[in-house]
């Protein structure tokens, strides 16, 4: 396909495809377009966001079958071939011969690149080394001073994954872990406003002239979904991205609910009851399939992250051995065991 045709056909599945680089679009057209069309014929939509347990299991199955097919010794050699320079040529030949890209993505309605990154995260032994020691943190700061944001090089020196060292550095470079000051909060609000307005302006320029003539408006959805938190972290300067995200959600919750205590007293009981009932009625098998945005009015006019946080607290405090239960088992327990108790208390 030529580039314009590829963009046009991919746009049906990837709405933001025109914002991607030409190289990425060409790769996606080659690796994903046929797969996407096949999933469409089956009535399956392309997914983004967190991987479900079912998808993780499918990735493990695909990797296991590919290793069996090729005789490659283990997943680390398959996914981190550069760590084995003496075997690199042989492994790459086998990957090409047995269609690695197609096999690893089999049965998973997502872009190939996301599946590949997820597989690397699952099978990288450097991902599961626990908390960083004080000595490791000092090493990380030292290596970053020398190599900057070359996370691949730093990860090799520390025997940690790229993602792990990048996120840990983002965390430890922050100098403030106490309550937010008024100045920090203002910086955060200005940073979020800046990135949202820039994004909205770009979208307005791409839309029809009639829409472009309107005053710039910001949809509620844009206030808390898919914000570039690492960019916002840089603008704030004294907090790392996760702190910024949590603080912004708390600000939104307070503003959208006009400062009311939504989860206290009888209102809190009613919110829990409503949340359990709505989740039960949805009859979904995985938390990733829940429309949390739709659920926000079960508690009040709040961001979906607030609803997710409240559900997490509910299952942790009320469901015994919740870690060993599936999502549907947790919901059934809350509905059968906890709901009558909450209704009686109310």
From TrEMBL:
InterPro entries in alphabetical order: Homeodomain-like_sf, Myb_dom, SANT/Myb, TTF1-like
One GO process term, biological-process aspect: termination of RNA polymerase I transcription
One MF annotation (Gene Ontology) recorded for this entry: chromatin binding
Pfam families per the UniProt record, alphabetical: Myb_DNA-bind_6
HTH myb-type domain mapped to chain residues: 124-161
Superkingdom as given in the UniProt entry: Eukaryota
Protein name: TTF1 factor
């Amino acid at each position: 396909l030529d580039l314009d045709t590829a963009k046009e056909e991919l746009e049906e599945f990837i709405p933001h495809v025109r914002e991607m680089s030409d190289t990425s679009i060409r790769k996606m057209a080659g690796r994903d377009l046929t797969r996407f069309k096949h999933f469409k014929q089956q009535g399956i939509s392309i997914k983004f966001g967190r991987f479900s347990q079912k998808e993780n299991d499918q990735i493990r199955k695909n990797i296991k079958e590919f290793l069996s097919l090729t005789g490659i010794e283990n997943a680390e050699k398959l996914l981190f071939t550069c760590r084995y320079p003496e075997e690199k040529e042989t492994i790459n030949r086998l990957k090409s011969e047995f269609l690695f890209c197609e096999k690893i993505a089999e049965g998973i309605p997502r872009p190939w690149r996301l599946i590949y990154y997820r597989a690397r995260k699952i099978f990288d032994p450097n991902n599961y080394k626990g908390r960083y020691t004080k000595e490791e943190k000092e090493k990380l700061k030292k290596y970053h001073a020398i190599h900057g944001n070359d996370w691949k090089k730093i990860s090799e020196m520390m025997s940690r994954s790229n993602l792990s060292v990048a996120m840990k550095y983002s965390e430890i470079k922050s100098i403030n872990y106490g309550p937010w000051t008024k100045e920090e909060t203002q910086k955060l609000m200005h940073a979020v406003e800046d990135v949202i307005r820039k994004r909205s302006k770009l979208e307005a320029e791409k839309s029809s002239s009639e829409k472009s003539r309107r005053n710039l408006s910001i949809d509620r959805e844009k206030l808390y979904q898919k914000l570039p938190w690492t960019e916002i972290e840089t603008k704030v300067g004294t907090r790392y991205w996760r702190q910024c995200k949590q603080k912004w959600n708390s600000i939104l919750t307070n503003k959208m609910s006009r400062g009311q205590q939504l989860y206290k007293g009888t209102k809190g009981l009613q919110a829990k009851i409503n949340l359990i009932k709505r989740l039960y009625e949805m009859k979904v098998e995985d938390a990733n399939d829940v429309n949390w945005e739709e659920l926000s009015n079960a508690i009040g006019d709040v961001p979906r992250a607030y609803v997710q946080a409240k559900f997490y607290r509910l299952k942790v405090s009320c469901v015994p051995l919740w870690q060993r239960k599936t999502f549907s088992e947790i919901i059934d327990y809350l509905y059968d065991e906890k709901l009558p108790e909450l209704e009686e208390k109310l």
